[in-house]
Amino acid sequence: RAKSAGGNRFELADPEADARTITRHGLTTALPTALDRGEFFIEYQPLVHLGDGSVRGAEALVRWLHPQHGVLGPDRFIPLAEHTGLIVPLGRWVLEQSVRQAREWREICGADRGSAPLRINVNLSPCQLTDPGLVRDTVDILERAGVEPDALCLEVTESALIGADDDLLKPLRRLADMGVDIALDDFGTGYSNLANLRRLPVSILKLDRSFTRGMQQFPADPVDLKIVEGIVSLAHSLDLAVTVEGVETGAQAEQLKVLGCDTAQGWYYARPGPPERLHELTLVDATG
Ligand code: C2E
Ligand code: MG
Ligand code: MG
Ligand code: MG
């Protein structure tokens, strides 16, 4: 570490920070070719109906199989892809793969599930909202795969929509009008004005993991319980469904069900995994 001993001095590089910069730089340069080389892949994590425990959908989560560094999680490269603009083609690729996978999944696990068709959730970066091709590409992808818009849910983080003006909301509104669900991801972390929710074309709130974490201990933190209860009742009064993320124990699941949450996602049910695993989980669940 450099000493701030006054006078002219050289900053000594922090070796760790240096390694981080090199990797960051290395990853950034490797990103564009990674897409062409097919180094990205998608894992799917089931979304479970809290009422009856059945699999109702899955969230698509992208990973990068880096030739040197092995599997990298999205937190390592999504911010870089956003910074370089690669997120637009990458996001389109994720959407296309996920929608095709949804088609196959529905074929394998029964397209006719009455009022509970299997649905696919795909994360959308704020940069994709300003991509003028978003609506057209989404429609194309759905049509080519033969998947109805109401089988798709796009997840946008609460922070991406805070203070969003009408121009930013327009593409989401068009997609919502077509039947695509829009979910507000990581809800509760963005300090958004709750009254603001009415303005947004969203139909689902995804409660951030920080809320479920407070329910891990037993008995759960009573303040956390009150907060979640309040959010759920507000959401329902606005006709929004509530999904909870990060459910890791049966006790949490039970608690969240009592609080009226609709859908849950987390390691208690399944970790993100390959599509075959998702098919298995869905089929097991359908046959009891
Ligand atoms: P997210 O959309 O909030 O996704 C949920 C994250 O929580 C995932 O992390 C998932 O693996 C993790 N998770 C699920 N259940 C549990 C649990 O019970 N306990 C714990 N501790 N974690 C759980 P992951 O896969 O690392 O993804 C991180 C974030 O990266 C996502 O957060 C999302 O914001 C972003 N992301 C992932 N895929 C994409 C993508 O295709 N496009 C964009 N733009 N962002 C993506
Ligand atoms: Mg998400
Ligand atoms: Mg989330
Ligand atoms: Mg989250």
TrEMBL record:
Domain EAL, residue spans: 24-286
Entry superkingdom: Bacteria
Name by which UniProt lists this protein: Diguanylate phosphodiesterase
Organism of this sequence: Streptomyces leeuwenhoekii
Higher taxonomy: Bacteria, Bacillati, Actinomycetota, Actinomycetes, Kitasatosporales
